[in-house]
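U., I forgot to send this yesterday:
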Amino acid sequence: MSVDSRIAAITARIVERSKPYREPYLERLRNAASKSVHRSVLGCGNLAHGFAVCSPAEKEALAGDQVPNLGIITSYNDMLSAHQPFETYPALIREAAKEAGGVAQVAGGVPAMCDGVTQGQPGMELSLFSRDLIAMAAGVGLSHNMFDAAVYLGVCDKIVPGLMIAAMTFGHLPAIFIPAGPMTSGLPNDEKARVRQLFAEGKVGRDELLVAESKSYHGPGTCTFYGTANSNQMLMEIMGLHMPGASFINPNTPLRDALTREATKRALAITALGNEFTPAGEMIDERSIVNGVVGLHATGGSTNHTMHLVAMARSAGIALTWQDISELSDVVPLLARVYPNGLADVNHFHAAGGMGFLIAQLLKAGYLHQDVRTVFGQGLDAYAIDVKLGENGTVRREPIPAESADPKVLTTVDKPFQPTGGLKMLTGNLGKAVIKISAVKADRHVIEAPAKIFHDQGELQAAFKAGTLEGDFIAVVRFQGPKANGMPELHKLTTVLGILQDRGQRVALVTDGRMSGASGKVPSAIHLTPEAVDGGPIARIREGDIVRLDATAGTIEVLVPAEELAARPAATADLSGNEFGMGRELFQPFRAATGTADNGASVFFH
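Result:
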């Protein structure tokens, strides 16, 4: 089916806007591709260093340009549950490469931090900028010019976006992303959230909370809720950078290993040395990016991707805006209910039909560009499949069933959970912000209430414990933007505001900071730009001002006359405590050089 005319129009607009960036990008990419990987023209000393630890047969192969060499960029560490499975991948990839007549080397490692470990801690202020650092670290690994293609081992929040920026920067090389998969289901996410609320209210102790958390996060793989990490996996598959069906297979299973071997062999098959050369920067185009946004809306994905997708697109010379994302939300229906947008986890989503069913439904209704290139070949319809373990440890793909195995988790385009997507842009006299409404009840889409001002999430938590958060209010948490303190996630506010909302208070959040990609039921205008440290209007809100958040109309405003608001002095904050400790001093250059949230909050793009 041809793509929906509204989606086609938005895509055409992105193409036109992107020309000043995309055309020079493609020219640079093609120039790099024309030079290819000429290991034979490296100095003998250079080349000897590059394959010093290889076997004699591998050295002989790499001495010329006829045998493809696969660069592995890994984000392995054994503290982070989602990335611990990558420990065994290099050996598996090298073995598969050898079977395919190629060579594979670990080109480099990148850092991988866990937002779950750093929530509410000083280290969280490094999190967002770690994305750009990961891109730079991957670039260092690939700069040796020893490789004909690259595979990227990453899963979690900033890791995949950072690796994607690197893959597009080295877009003359083919690239395949290889995931590790979600951990098996543990304590249901809604039960975990219930215990968190009880703890915040003082009704259970730390021991009970730790038991609940440990039953939820209990083994190798990604957390099972649908936050940024699992949104990453959805994006890589729907954009054609995963092998079909690869996203949500559990770690340490025969099928997971079979998909990794298959991805390795496919990466070697699509180099310039073969007949299916697929440079990543040419493969990913405006249609691919739009497909990613459509998938985000159809699944109620992470708010963090309103920044990450903008930065990822720009790294390929594509100018995506919040307006594009918001307009696509108005077109695309919500087809998945995965926590926090429902009670199911990503394992239940996969069992219901997963990515194959989702893609089939979106293609059927014309919400996706089918005619894209992918690492698997031409056309996205190859991803509308169910993946199984075949004979002799191979991968077998079957047509996806016509019906969802669980319509309460994954539905059809004929019976969507809601007619529009999960993310919207808000505009008004406070600037621009985004809101996730897929988990917010309809009677909470409009909140008009007095402002309560806080300069960090700790102040709001203290007010909650003191019992001073009474009546309806909108919490204004400012000086949390990228320039101020690195834009940490304010996830701890979710529990507090959720308790107050459950008590019947009409509450909302307005902030220039971020919330977790797993945040849900409380209406939250986040990523507000201009941020307070830049003198944005949020810095001029005063205690008791009436603020109106209207997700239906797409507006965010303080109800103060324009002249009065402009005449007010902007508030200031002492941010010296955010400049040192837990590595924050090392990231001062990032805070000084970052762009705004709507431009991806990146040091690369402004």
